[in-house]
Design a protein that fits this description.
The complex is a heterodimer of chains A (175) and B (104).
Chain A: H1 3-9, H2 23-34, E1 45-50, H3 53-61, E2 72-79, H4 80-113, E3 117-121, H5 126-133, E4 139-148, H6 162-165
Antiparallel strand pairs in A: 1-2, 2-4, 3-4
Chain B: H1 4-28, H2 35-53, H3 59-71, H4 74-77, H5 79-103
Classes of the chains: A alpha+beta (175), B mainly alpha (104).
Amino acid sequence: MQVFDIIKKRRSVRFYTDKAIEEDKLKKLVEAAIWAPSAGNIHAWNIVIVQRKGDIELIKAVSPGMLGNAIALMILCADKRRAYDKGGEVGRDVLSIMDIAIATQNICLEATDLGLGSCIIRSFNQDAVRALLDLPENISPELVVTLGYPRSIPNPPSRRTVEDAVIRWIKGESD
Amino acid sequence: MRGKIEEERLRYKLLKLFCYIITSARGCVEEPKLYGPFRLIDSVGRIITLLDNEGLADDFLRKEKAKIEENKYLVMQDEKGFTKFLDELVIDFTQELKEGAVKK
């Protein structure tokens, strides 16, 4: 598929079949995240992968935004210490989060290309997820991505037009 | 009478539900305004599911649960439609409450 087709095909999928996700596909998703751009090439993030059903249920219990089901979770965590050591306060508070957002989009686009559904979730309690996963204090869960083979694919919601999105377009002399 | 295992199973289900409601409450402090009504109505759906699994839901509750499942995602696409759906739920439950009061 062409990149633009994948971008338009990606949906926030919340209901999945019971089919397990192959390990090589999960690794491919991590690889897609690794190849995302990173401010200062710092890559101050890590991923936790959860496939065990009981653990997914526990994380779901403290994640109000996690509706439906999930066959696997990828939890993208900022390494706040690394982000601060390499990028200072901006690195810790802003850039590491932006990096995670970009990496997450790569995961979702690659998932779409692999026939998987995905949904990005920010409505979860970070302290609770950290406690459930026994993560150290400097590792901050920032986004949860649910994954699986889609049971149903939602219709695309409406989108703004190019004219609505661009508030100013300064064209060159030749245009 | 419920056995100990049954009681523990129910307690665990309730704990999961409480976790959902409590983390929702915490999230609503900062999250978009419309998430609040969504979480409340989703909680109603989850409580009915729990009751249904315990054999305690009736036709009315099952019908309303189906309505909630069908319409709750309007919050993300159609705010007016979501509000209209909440208005309908208010009437459904009020009517049921009124009929229950008459029976008593």
